[in-house]
Amino acid sequence: MPVPRIIMRKIKEVLRLKLDAKLSHRQIAAAIGISKGVVTKYVGLAAAAGLDWPAVQSADEATLERLLLVAPEWPRDHVQPDYGRMHQELRRKGMTVMLLWDEYRADHADKQTYGYSQFCDNYRRFARQLKRSMRQTHRAGEKLFIDFAGPTIALTDGNRAHIFVAALGASSYTFACATPRETMTDWLESTVRALSFIGGVPQMIVPDNPKALIADANRYEPRSNDTVLDFARHYGTSVLPARPYHPQDKAKAESAVQIVERWIMARLRHQQFTSVDEVNQAIAPLLTRLNEKPFQKLPGSRASTFAEIDAPALLPLPLQPYEIAHFKTVKVHIDYHVEVERHRYSVPHPLVGQVLEARITTAAVEILHRGNRVASHARNNQVGGFTTIAAHMPAAHRAHMEWTPQRLIHWGQSIGPAVAEVVTRLLNGNKHPEHGYRACLGLLSLAKRYGKPRLEAACMLTLQIGACQYRHVRDILANGRDQSAPPSTEEWVSPNHIHLRGPGYYQ
């Protein structure tokens, strides 16, 4: 007779609190001073024995021990269930051991079959014989595990190809490809290829907590970075990094990596490759053979199990694959433009002064306000250039705008004619005068630091040398050149030039 792990009096109290008092497993565990797992065990044994509280209450400890803990003598001629198939079926969403037991009994109604308790015990013994990664029960279409193999493949130019591996949890259907590095872009582009390979999207993608993808490698709740979250939104899935120090979270990935190292990379060890593309061409046929190779202890293969279980449960792919995007916090300047990589893009002018978010891809720049897109531009790499949408501009310098060209020129005139001329030229130097606002404001603000006479002298000097830029005036003042220059014998007068717009243009 097996020795009970806790005394029968405590077991009976567990059943009383559950069957009569209707407490939760957590409450029972706290009340008696045992673990929730022990509570679950004995409540399950009572359920398997068909015991309710009146039956437990009326039974003495010896009877209760026999009903709960003593295994009956099972006949040897019971029909044996297909535990391998059962293990595969349990990966289907909504599948339970109880349903499989009902089907097992129905299929063999005229023969001796196992009771539910023995049926479960036999399955548990079978599952314990499987490898750790196979023993875990993953639901169909639920998780795609991704990781990089430790070893790399040498290229003839001295570089190395890194091997990305992905495996579905339920079927172990495996994908592998080579990349030049292990950056965030390599991770995400490889995952895009993996999703295309399996032809669908799982509910979750589980990386091994890599620094390239993680904004916060918290031990309990690792947090993905903004680009990874954007990737997940595009595919309608979630990226859930494996927890550090929890090997059970990544057993499937580790197993897949080991298989790829032994089954694919080992077979390529004698070949020479000049590029990552050549490595991928060599991987493709071996990947097909790997997925079609029969399992050792389970029925079918990765490919057949994928087609039967995982594929029907996957979410559909979006119409377009994900394009890598980077995010940057930007502030809308007075000219209703934001600066992204030294180029300025317009946004609706009411957003002046607000802090927005730029989503940057190789082809486009999107500006987001509280998660909503307010502007979209083709990406332009011209340093110092402007990309402006007319609809973003205030029509005819709207009256409610705080700054206008006329106001800026008038401010310059209050300091001196040379300052006014430089302001005018800064405004004329842009297709839209608003683009020169920041330079004008920076120029005029120099009067606070250096005084109006020095600013007027510096502007006069910069006009004489023909270099009308804010930075030129700033450098003249910083170096004191305005003070060392010989005084002009006459007041500077703006030349009459057909291509220059004077202050009257902005009236």
TrEMBL record:
One of its GO terms (biological process) is DNA integration. PROSITE patterns: HTH_IS408 (PS50532), INTEGRASE (PS50994). Residues 136-311 form the Integrase catalytic domain. Pfam families: Mu-transpos_C_2, rve. Residues 11-90 form the HTH IS408-type domain. GO terms for molecular function: nucleic acid binding. Belongs to the transposase IS21/IS408/IS1162 family. This is Transposase of ISCARN95, IS21 family, ORFA. It comes from mine drainage metagenome. The gene is istA.
